[in-house]
Design brief:
By secondary structure, this protein is mostly helical. The chain has 10 helices and no strands.
Length: 271
């Protein structure tokens, strides 16, 4: 590549980088995502589809073309570095699904066009932080989930042994007990399930009370606490990075001043 061609390439890359980084361009893409979502929703109405189906299809193809051009521009600017960003990979996947021919046996892929709306997650910074926070919470949630499963298993074995003979439909087998106790944990109709059992076993309320307190209030609140902590960490991350940057700048300034002072001392000693 000649020097002139290289300069033209750098100029075009710089221009595209400025363009795709402008807030106006980002809001334009977000607006297209919303418009695409509305069109896909209207297409589910048979009357609207029969009347404006061809118009909807034309607008849908036009929006898809803009999305493809946007991704090509990002690839031209960042080259292969673009795929180091998970959100860029997500955008490529979501748009790429829409490019697969949805005919014949692949006609089911037509319904996957709605995935394009998920681009809002990558386009809106606040949504990205929420999703990142949830993903960061997964490792911590694993231990809590294991604890919850252990409690449900132990409680199911106990319930099968205690109540299975009188209530075979609810607690006759381990799988039936697990299903019943999970339903009680969600607090959905638990009184209708536990009421008949307590009529036969007057002290069964102790079992159900302890079980609900441990699962519905203690363990599930641990899930919420882990998620909230991850969200807070993700929200504070930009501020911490900014503070570290300020500290680094101040450290560099101090080191520069110390170097200058050392030079002045050497000059004074020489004189």
């Amino acid at each position: 590549m000649s020097e002139q061609a290289r300069q033209e390439d750098e100029t075009l890359r710089s221009w595209l980088k400025i363009l795709i980084g402008k807030p106006v361009f980002e809001w334009f893409i977000i607006g297209l995502i919303f418009l695409n979502a509305v069109i896909l929703g209207l297409e589910t109405n048979k009357g609207m589809h029969d009347a404006y189906g061809s118009l909807f299809s034309a607008i849908d193809r036009l929006i898809l073309s803009v999305f493809v051009c946007e991704l090509l521009a990002k690839f031209y600017v960042h080259r292969w570095q673009m795929f180091k960003d998970p959100w860029s990979v997500f955008d490529v996947f979501v748009v790429g699904v829409a490019l697969v021919p949805a005919t014949g046996h692949l006609s089911v892929l037509r319904s996957l066009r709605i995935l394009r709306i998920l681009r809002l997650i990558s386009a809106v910074p606040s949504m990205r932080r929420v999703v990142t926070g949830l993903l960061n919470a997964i490792p911590g949630m694993g231990s809590v989930a294991a604890l919850l499963l252990l409690i449900i298993y132990v409680s199911s074995v106990m319930a099968t042994q205690l109540f299975g003979s009188e209530f075979p439909k609810l607690f006759g087998t381990l799988s039936a007990s697990i299903f019943t106790l999970v339903q009680i944990m969600t607090m959905e109709g638990w009184a209708d399930l536990a009421g008949p059992v307590m009529d036969k076993f007057p002290y069964a309320w102790i079992f159900f009370l302890i079980y609900m307190l441990v699962t519905s209030f203690a363990v599930l609140n641990l899930f919420i606490g882990i998620i909230v902590d991850a969200m807070q960490s993700e929200a504070l991350a930009p501020l911490q990075a900014h503070e570290e940057e300020i500290v680094d700048d101040q450290t560099r300034e101090i080191m520069t001043e110390l170097t200058a002072i050392k030079e002045e001392i050497r000059e004074l000693r020489k004189s």
